[in-house]
Structures are given as C-alpha cells and as structure tokens.
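To whoever picks this up:

The nightly regression suite flagged Peptide deformylase as changed. Nothing in the input moved, so I suspect the structure step. Input below, exactly as stored in the fixture:
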Amino acid sequence: MTALSDSPRIYPIRLYGDPVLRRKARPLQHTDMLTVPGFDPQTVRQVADTMLETMFEARGVGLAAPQVGLPVRMFVAVEYEDDEEENEGQDTPLKSRVLREFVMLNPVLSVLDKKKDRSYQEGCLSIPGIYEEGVSRARAIQVRYTDLDGAQRTIQADDYLARVFQHEADHLDGIFFLDRLPPEVTEDYRRELLAMQRKAKQYLSDLTVREGQRRQERGS
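Regenerated output under the current build:
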C-alpha cells in the first residue's frame, strides 16, 4: 500500500476481503466527480489517468475502479506488443511496448464466439501472487462503452485481450477469477487469502483513522 496524498501518483490497490470488491458497481457519467477514499475529488479523466499509472506500477494489464475503492463501472486496460499473460508481474519494461490503452465507462460485453478458452493463466492485482489456469472465457467478444469524452464506442477483441476485458468486467459485478474455478482451488489458497483479508481489514481501519484526521485538520 502507498501513502495517501491529495494528488496521488498511484492509488493503493484493494485486496481480497475488502467489501468494495464484492459490491456491484454503479453506472457513471464522464462528467462526474469521483472521490477515491482518502483522496480529494477528481474528474473521471484524472482518476482514469491515475488508475493507468497504478496498473503500470503494479505490472498489470488491467485495473477496475472497485480495485481502488470506487464502486463505479469503469476499468482501464492495456494491450502490449506481446500480450501474453506472462507480462503481468514480470520485470520487463511495459510502457515502451504499449500498443493501446483503454478506458471504458459502463462497458457492456457481448459474446461473438461461443467457444470457450481455458488455456491462459489468470492472476489479479487484488489477489497478488496467485495465478491459475482453467478459467473459462469467451474467445471473442464485443464491448460497447463510453469513452472519456462521453462518446459511445464499440470494440471487438479476441484471445488474450478478450480475456482481459472479461476479467475486468467481472470486477464491476463483484466477481473474482477464482470464483470461476472449482471451490477447491480457492480452498487451496485459504491461508494466503486469509492473510489478504487481514491486510484488507487493517487498511480500512487505518483509512478510517486518516480520513478522520483529515476532517479534523480541515475543520480547525
């Protein structure tokens, strides 16, 4: 977790066990002002920019708003020159290999290819250190979404990029990739997940204290 500030370079990423990660996110408008807990209000564009920086810092390929404590239907993602799943968490230069960055508001996914793929390995920035194969995802999808200017967009994606979009869209409905695997997989990681839950609880407790201190300072 990083220290909080009014003008963040990156956001703390919420861990498994944080209640915000299980809530269904609400729709938003591109003109909304958003408040990441612990920070001052920002525009949607500012939040998206910081989410992208947070994603790069964590060496991820996508990040959903609930993962930074915002229960809104927005996620960011990136396509690299080499978009294999091994990119995530590895010590390779990321920004130099970016093909496209995506910021999607209120995404709606539809399946273009009903054939399922289970061959890729998935991980999650909110469940660090845990990677599993076997998550069933559609091979090809279409996403309708709103961009940062309020325009309606449509994009088609297949293979790994389609998986990234499906993974991030799941976060907007409170779903982890582990939920799409047999229960025994989650049980195998019980010790690690319990440790994350403790860290999540402690972070929320510390955040409550810091927010109280900020209110007192501004009221004095």
